[in-house]
Amino acid sequence: MAAPRSFLWSRAVFLTLLTGFVLLPVYVMVSSSLKPLADVSGKFQWIPSGLTLTPYRDIWKTVPLADYFVNSLVVAGAATVCSVVIAVFAAYAVSRYAFRGKRVFTVTVLSTQMFPGILFLLPLFLIYVNIGNATGIALFGSRGGLILTYMTFSLPFSIWMLIGYFDSVPRDLDEAAKVDGCGPLGALFRVIVPAAVPGIVAVAVYAFMTAWGEVLFASVMTNDTTRTLAVGLQGYASQNDVYWNQVMAASLVVSVPVVAGFLLLQRFLVTGLTAGAVK
Questions:
Q1: Do 275 and 168 contact (CB within 8 A), yes or no?
Q2: pTM value?
Q3: DSSP of 198-240, one letter per residue?
Q4: CA–CA separation, 29 vs 245, rounded Å?
Q5: Which residues pair with 237 in a beta bridge?
Q6: Does 148 have pLDDT greater than 80?
Q7: Could you tell me if 59 and 65 are in contact, meaning their C-beta atoms sit under 8 angstroms apart?
Q8: Which letter does DSSP use for residue 167 in this model?
Q9: What is the spatial distance between Cα 58 and Cα 77, in angstroms, rounded to a whole number?
Q10: Which one of 17, 28, 210, 256 is at 20 to 30 Å from 76 when CA atoms are compared?
Q11: pLDDT of 239-251, one tens digit each?
């Protein structure tokens, strides 16, 4: 049965408006990043009178953007790898084995998502400072401390998501692997992990994006040498002026790794988010 013509027209209008709503901020960012500062500071012009690539050159000089970029890659990458590795082992244990306190563990993992992150800011700050004073291990103001901080947010969601995904993998695969001589770890890495690649990729993307764009903890837990991109963008605002064209240019440059990774892993991400929902 063919759809009514009114439905087709309504759908076309709705999708056009939605596309314009999504692309409008992108156009403003791109056009503003190609304008001189005087044009950006004045009345906004939909069609730029003059284009320049100077903001893309100056963003590396106004602030040490390259250093911030490296810090963000190291922190987000390490937090992602650690979260995925720990979540794989924890989710496999919960999914495949019965042990005392299993239900309490899963409920506790899920309940951590109910609290806003700002509640953990002061406790983590005090813990890091006291550890540094007692042991000399500098967690506050270091990349390692920020990695641990981001893991506290990404790990619960990662474990909970992988539990549902591992539950959807047939247990017959584990039995077949044991018949072939594999132990628990052999079955995990040779059978379960390859079958759960979409879910693991989805968890990795979530953990990376959470760490890449986080601002609150990065602004408190870092210093001038460990500052990340999300906080470093504030350096384009001086006491007298804000370099809006450089802010827009830097924002686009910062978004490139996340957007490129999302486009490359989109197929795995969609599969991983939906496959564990139905057993």
A1: yes
A2: 0.81
A3: HHHHHHHHHHHHHHHS--HHHHHH--TTT--HHHHGGGGB-SS
A4: 8
A5: 242
A6: yes
A7: yes
A8: H
A9: 27
A10: 28
A11: 677 888 888 998 8
Whether the CB-CB separation of 221 and 68 falls below 8 Å is answered with: no
Neighbours of 99 (CB within 10 A): 8
* Secondary structure class of 56 (helix, strand, coil): helix
Contacts of residue 158, Cβ cutoff 8 Å, sequence gap at least 6: 83, 84, 86, 87, 91, 203, 206, 207
CA distance 45 to 37: 13
Instruction: Say what the pLDDT of residue 1 is.
Output: 60
Burial of 54 (0-12, 13-18, 19+ CB in 10 A): middle
Average pLDDT on 145-172 reads 87
Contact residues for 28 (Cβ-Cβ < 8 A; gap 6+): 44, 248
Cβ contact 34:191 at 8 Å: no
Q: Under a CB-based contact definition with an 8 Å cutoff, are residues 196 and 96 in contact?
A: no
- At 67-93, the pLDDT tens digits run 998 999 999 999 999 999 999 999 998
Amino acid at residue number 40: V
pLDDT at 236 over 50: yes
